[in-house]
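Provenance

Sequences were taken from public entries as deposited. Structures were produced by running a predictor on each sequence independently, with no templates supplied. The record for Dihydropyrimidinase from Eudyptula minor is shown for reference.
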Amino acid sequence: LAQQRLLIKGGKVVNDDCSVVADVYVEDGVVQQVGPNLNPEPPTGLVVLDATNKLVIPGGIDTHTHMQFPFMGSRSKDDFYTGTKAAIAGGTTMIIDFAIPQKGCSLIEAFDRWKSWADPKVCCDYALHVAVTWWSNKVKEEMKSLVQNKGVNSFKMFMAYKDLYMVNDEELYAAFSCCKELGAVAQVHAENGELIAQGAKKMLAMGITGPEGHELCRPEDVEAEATQRAITIANAVNCPLFVVHVMSKSAARVISNARREGKVVYGEPIAASLGTDGTNYWNKDWAHAAAYVMGPPLRPDPSTPGFLMNLLANDDLSVTGTDNCTFDICQKALGKDDFTKIPNGVNGVEDRMSVIWEKGVVSISRCLNVEQNARISVILGVVLFCKHRTISAKTHHQANNFNIFEGMICHGVPVATVSKGKVVYEGGAFNVTAGEGKYVSRPPFPPYVYKRVRQREQV
Ligand code: URP
Ligand code: ZN
Ligand code: ZN
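Predicted structure for Dihydropyrimidinase:
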């Protein structure tokens, strides 16, 4: 109760349209007043945070995580407890994870399973995307029920992971049509799964078994082709499309061109694609190289992160996630003799805001893309931002023993994080308990997206 009234004093409050030095008064988790020299009454029971010389920005929303994900013969290391604690330390106050059913299995059961994992453990708020990994009338019915009864408004379709999660064009068409009917956003993992399977066989036959084979068997075209195909299919049914983990210049260009043609498509670069690159796959240390294995891969062209950041800054790309799906070195070693068996995934949930700040504001003087996150959802948290830190696996809160941003000096780091009006992190100390985060229902027909879909329909 003592934390229910909070005054953040003297920080520079960053909004979509402008920044202003002001106090922020929060009561019962809701911002009540923003202005100079606020003196809320009574003073007793008021928690005061001094934000002098700091930025006060909306809590981050990581649009893409995989906590405790059973995947590729293993389970990702960050669970909903360590992962969301790390998120808070990095200034993120909400994550959106993925419930992913096996082919032939129930989407609703997958949703319930993921929710039962998350609810007792989450330290920040969360929502769930659901994956469509096969197609039938039952899937269609379940999508409807998830949208109408469970607060799901986005579904991810995989164009890769052949024989595991991959769907074909006919299934994509059906799933996109259904999303459109229900007012959901279709998401795609855009890579040509057939070409990856063939390319991987070819690499292994040539004796290339190391992590570099992972990138060599799926060059940029493989990502760009699938991105173009998904956009074409989505446009045919006027369904809004969200391309997750945009990793290459080629795929980003495809999205940018489609947006210029008026298509309703959004691209999500991730902390990894903005903060590091695929040259790491050629590192002589196998463990180092394997730690960067994820799909689509990071690109060896070192100008990729800057290119993606420029597109993010000018709205060609729209939001940032992390695809946080951490595996430690022992788990990665499942693929020591065959790169196709290295569990795919990297860290980022704690690093994302600082990495974007470093690469997007400090390096090229662009505005942090906070407003995008605020626009697609309510602002759930507040972060006091300023300080510097060198990213390291030795000091991070993510559960794995490697950090793909190791050694990066960041000049924007959360000093305090506020969630629902409570200071949950301050000066390196946490004040959260497992299960304190809440599931956030997301409504169908989100206006930011569907306003454009309706306009296009009328035209
Ligand atoms: O390598 C990745 N991206 N792992 C997580 C699963 C996915 O495709 O998002
Ligand atoms: Zn994916
Ligand atoms: Zn993912």
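The first strand starts at residue 5 and ends at 14.
The pocket of zinc ion (ligand 3) is lined by residues 64, 66, 245, 323 (CB under 6 Å).
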